[in-house]
Amino acid sequence: MVIFMVKIKDIAERCGLSIASVSKALHGESDLNPKTAEYIRNVAREMGYIPNASARLLKTKRSYNIGVLFVDETSSGLEHEYFSSILNSIKDEAEKNGYDITFISHHFGQNYLTFYEHAKYRNVDGVIIASVDFKDPEVIKLVESEIPTVTIDYEFNDVASVVSDNVQGVRDIVNFLVDMGHTKIAFITGDDTSVTQKRVASFYKTCGENKISVNDEYIKKGRYHIPKVSGEATRELLALKDRPTVIMYPDDYSLLGGITEIEKHGLKVPDDISVVGYDGIKLSRLLRPIVTTYVQNSTEIGIQATKKLIDLIENPKVTIKDRTLVIGGLQQGETVRNIK
After folding, report:
1. Is the terminal CB of the chain with fewer CB neighbours within 10 Å at N or C?
2. Largest interatomic CA distance in the chain
3. pLDDT in tens, 252-281
4. Can you give the residue range of the structural domain that contains 184?
5. Residue 300 phi/psi, 5° resolution?
6. 24 falls within a domain
7. Which residues make Cβ contacts (< 8 Å) with residue 225, sequence separation at least 6?
8. 3-class SS at 52?
């Protein structure tokens, strides 16, 4: 079967217009009567016209392809609801603006490529960087290259970023716990990242504002998205002679490990001990009792990162490489007991 590829010349003949006019309409150029442009696009759709990516690249010098660098050390990958929500909103926003997305990695068949080399090979117009070791020299090389980049939840100098307000998130949690009568607050932190550092600093600052003295034994190092590690940290907290009345977890998955350990000790949430998560994944609303957690606006994070990157690609001279702060909100849930 021979497939007939509709060309701009064919559309021009059908419309009775010049090839130049049809080309302008299909490429969205503004110096054409809007009604004429819409008519041309309708005819093109009826004829089954498919834009030629190579031709568009030659004309616009852009591939309309956005790279996404996402490295997940916990191996939960796209199954992790928080990051999958961000990635899905990146995809939706990119497609809405006529862009495809490509995942950037080290692997190309049997060959090893740096992140920068892979981005160049795929000819991406820009890269959104999330969930990586931002101190990795390869990440730094990509950020410092000529390729436009936007980082999520990390700030470099002179690089656009979209950041969840982790400082406000922890402040809201601690203030809520204090309102519920808690002063013995334990905090299991995540991996040593800029996100964790901001959360810990906000924890100490907010406790200080509430005249709460932080017990060093109540601060435990954990790992993001690994319930087992938080379970072990919970066991250590429960073994303390003066144990906390509430435990804050680095994320909702980690909280599940904590609840499992609490139940192993014959204790009940929140009657015997209260717990608080972070992220606000859907599971936190399905569990019983409903989890008290801070809900990050993951969808908005992905949308804002994509919009910022497209601005950098299409309007590089006027787009400011600043920080966009995305605010979430506290889900009070049922896992914190009022002990006033």
Report:
1. N
2. 87
3. 999 999 999 999 999 999 999 999 999 988
4. 166-296
5. -65, -35
6. yes
7. 74, 76, 80, 251, 253, 254
8. coil
Sign of CA dihedral 228, 327, 169, 200: positive
Using only C-alpha atoms, what is the Rg of the chain? 25
Residue 2 falls within a domain, yes or no?
no
| Chain segment 98-125, per-residue pLDDT in tens | 899 999 987 766 678 899 999 998 899 9
257 residue type, one letter: G
Measured over the CA atoms of residue 201, residue 203, residue 204 and residue 205, the dihedral's sign is positive
* CATH number, position 316: 3.40.50.2300
Residue 277 domain-assigned (yes or no): yes
> Are residues 285 and 206 both part of a single domain?
yes
Asked whether residue 223 is assigned to any structural domain, the reply reads yes
Strands in 219-221's sheet, in edge-to-edge order, are 219-221, 185-189, 246-248, 274-279, 293-295, 329-331
Looking at the structure, tell me whether residues 229 and 279 fall in a common domain: yes
Measured distance CA(30)–CA(18) in Å, rounded: 16
The label of the residue with tokens 């004829």 reads: 47
Tokens of 288: 């019983």
* Total count of domains within the chain: 3
